[in-house]
Specification:
Elements lengths: L3 E4 L1 H11 L3 H16 L9 E2 L8 E6 L2 E10 L4 E10 L1 H4 L1
Parallel strand pairs: 1-5
Antiparallel strand pairs: 2-3, 3-4, 4-5
Length: 95
């Protein structure tokens, strides 16, 4: 099931900061977002539910030391499930 993806305003700033002068990482993030939209639970993404202070959020792997944090929200009149991008960074940055 293909889902819409929405960028949370703080995520936009974090994305810009992490991809500045790093086109390869920017390309990998866009590829990951596209895969996430197509199937958030495909094995390559290593999608997993978070615990503790990030309970209710999910994370997936962009590359070795880059994680994408997101959640699922029911939005609009149709209550379609949307992926909302929340944070991106190294394992230590986001957890």
């Amino acid at each position: 099931m293909k889902r819409a993806v929405r960028w949370d305003p703080p995520f936009k700033r974090i994305f810009k900061k992490h991809t500045q002068r790093n086109e390869r990482l920017e390309r990998r993030i866009y590829e990951t977002i596209a895969m996430l939209s197509d199937d958030a639970f495909q094995p390559k993404l290593e999608t997993h539910k978070l615990k503790g202070k990030l309970s209710g959020f999910w994370a997936c792997t962009v590359e070795y030391d880059c994680r994408l944090v997101f959640n699922f929200r029911q939005e609009g009149k149709s209550k379609e499930e949307t992926i909302v991008l929340v944070d991106i960074g190294t394992h230590d940055d986001v957890y």
